[in-house]
Structures are given as structure tokens and as C-alpha cells.
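hey so i finally got around to running the thing on that chain from the lab meeting. sorry it took forever, my laptop kept dying and i had to restart like 3 times. anyway pasting the input first so we r on the same page abt which one it is
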Amino acid sequence: MLKLMGGGLLCAVSGLVLLIVATATDFWMQYRFSGQLSNQGLWRFCVGGKCRPHTLTLAFWDTTRAFMILSVLSSFAGILLGLTSFSSSARAARSRSAGMTLLLAALFALLGISVYTGVTVHFYGKRYAEWRFSWSYILGWIAVILTISAGVFHICAASGNASPEDADVASG
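ok and heres what got predicted. didnt touch it at all, straight out
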């Protein structure tokens, strides 16, 4: 149980770091604009090395930002629940709650990235001939996988044996 919880926390912390980096950086998409390599993130776009905030507030930007922020906050809450489950007498309940919170965080990130993907492919894909998703976007997908893994580890730990001694008695 403790190994699963530890693995879950390792995945959760790694996923949280990647979620924060993905949400904060400006490399979700790269494209050519007026012959210059340009990039954009959730908050700014950069052309020729000069970055500016997005001036158009489109619903998909706000939706993606909101889901990514909710994902970061939920992931942080899941990590706190996971940490408290190590010292709590209600270890299984706290671990299960941590797992469910982390799965919710993964769902929020998945929704945010999916909205961004849909709009980018259908709008920007037609607008720019030469474009691609970039490393911030990829980090977001890796964070989703890590956060799902963390949630599954915590839920498996909660549904496992109450203590390592019980497992030794049952197998021996």
C-alpha cells in the first residue's frame, strides 16, 4: 500500500510540475507568420522573438485556460490529500480521495487540451500552411498520463491490504 501511495505521489508531483510548465509557457503551437517562425501559448503569442498578450479573448482560450488552471489546483489538492494519507488513521479513505481528486485533475487537463486541439486543427490548421504543436502542448499530454497514473495508484492503494503485515499473514 505504501509503495503504491509513494508511486502515486511521485507521478502526481511530476504531473503537477509539467502542468504548471505547460500552462505557463508560450510553446503550444509553432507556425510561420510573414516568413518568421512564431509561437503561441495560452497567454501570449510571439513573432520574431517579441511576445505580446493575446488581444482577442476567444471562448476557446478562456476555456482552455480555465480547465488547465482547474487541473493545476485539483492536482495540488490531490497531492495534499495523498501526503496526509501517510500519517492518517483513515489511510484508505484519504488515499481514495487523493486518487479521485487526481483523476479529476487529469480530466480537467484532458478537457483543456482537447478544446485547444480541436480549435487549433480546425482554425489555425487552415489559416497557416506550415504549423505544428510544440513542446508545451506535449508536456500537457505527458502530465495527463502521469496524473491518471497517480490517481490509479492511489485508488489501488486504497483498495489493497490495510497494512503490509496483513499481506504477510494472508500469504504465509
